[in-house]
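Something for you to look into today, if you have time. Just paste the record in under my message, thanks.
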Amino acid sequence: MSDVLTEQPLVRLNAPAPQFKAVSTQGDISLSDFEGKWVILFSHPADFTPVCTTEFVEFAKLTPTFEEKGVQLIGLSIDSVWAHIAWVRNIEENFGVKIKFPVIADPDTKVAQLYGMIHPGADSTSTVRCVFVIDPKQIVRAMIYYPLTNGRSINEVLRLLEALQTHDANNVATPANWEPGDDVIVKAPATQAGAEKRLTEGYDTKDWYFAKKSL
């Protein structure tokens, strides 16, 4: 088992996302197909399982919101494409939502190994619940991991995406529990002169290193 873990490459923040070509429920897709868009690539342990089903239902409900923000959702597990097709049809029939995003079939685990989605300490044959947020330049900007037993907050995935887009558009940071419309954090000055000036710049300033503003 340890050999499987050590062979997996380390996906790093602010590094290029590993490129892949794979079979999906919408035909062959490559990561490069989505250059210029944000991509949220997420894995799930297995089709026809209750926790994964709840996650897909919630991703489906928020798909229009993600699309409005220029995001392409891509699901993945090591199940076959036929299992994926049957499962997403079952979700539509039983839960009244349509899965509009592609779901990668990765039975040979090539994409899963590329992204380090298989953690032998959790399960040696299934992907854990990974989320990779990839920007329009195909750079990995965020990663989230959940255990097999606990479903993700899809609203948190959306909030994180919005926070990253806010940073890129305004060169600011976002505080704990930030939601769109909340004040943002201004970058701290890097010189003594800048620190002295910060106190007079009109921000909501607690001290030279801590200042907020509204957008």
